[in-house]
Amino acid sequence: MGMHAAAAGLERAGKGPAMTSIYDFSAARPDGSAVPLSDYRGKVMLIVNTASRCGFTPQYEGLERLYRDLQDRGLVVLGFPCNQFGKQEPGSADEIASFCSLNYGVTFPLFAKIDVNGPGAAPLYEWLKAEAPGLLGSEAIKWNFTKFLVGRDGQVADRFAPTTKPEALRGAIEALL
Predict the structure, then answer these.
(1) Has 100 been annotated as catalytic?
(2) Which residue in 44, 62, 112, 118 has its CB near the most CB atoms, within 10 A?
């Protein structure tokens, strides 16, 4: 902890190289290649930590429906597989991709498996959590299928619980499109 935690605290306070929008981050594709999130500049992003063996896994279907219905208007859904909750995403990148494609017809971008909490958490998720804390100000991701909605300006507009079904987000998404 020590120095690293202190440095992270300083960055959040804006005294270091503060990340000011989602466009400051990159994400790794399943093949390991990096994608700058600035590739999605001007789009509304729905960012979700996903898992293949979770009670909420059927939400893939609703996420895909939102993506198909609204992508022409500027929505992109970004899936980040994560194995930190009940070890419900144990598979390799290829296994995850084929599961999502075969079972839910997923065509929205899926990224490499990441950590969303703890010392190994992806910088993107550290920023998302700080920008939009959950209930009672807690930053930690509680479970699979936590959803962050990012506006066309690259700023976090809202955070939704795992239990919030994708279809319930349609109004909030459309308001940003």
Answers:
(1) no
(2) 44
Asked if 98 and 122 count as a contact pair (C-beta separation under 8 A), the reply is no
- Give the residue carrying structure tokens 């898992």: 51
Residue 16: predicted pLDDT: 44
Of 22, 51, 54, 124, catalytic: 54
- pTM of the predicted model as reported, rounded to 2 decimal places: 0.88
CA distance 51 to 97: 11
Query: What is 2-176's CATH number, 3.40.30.10, 2.130.10.10, 3.40.190.10, 3.30.9.100?
Result: 3.40.30.10
Helix segments in the chain, DSSP class H: 2-12, 59-70, 93-104, 123-131, 170-176
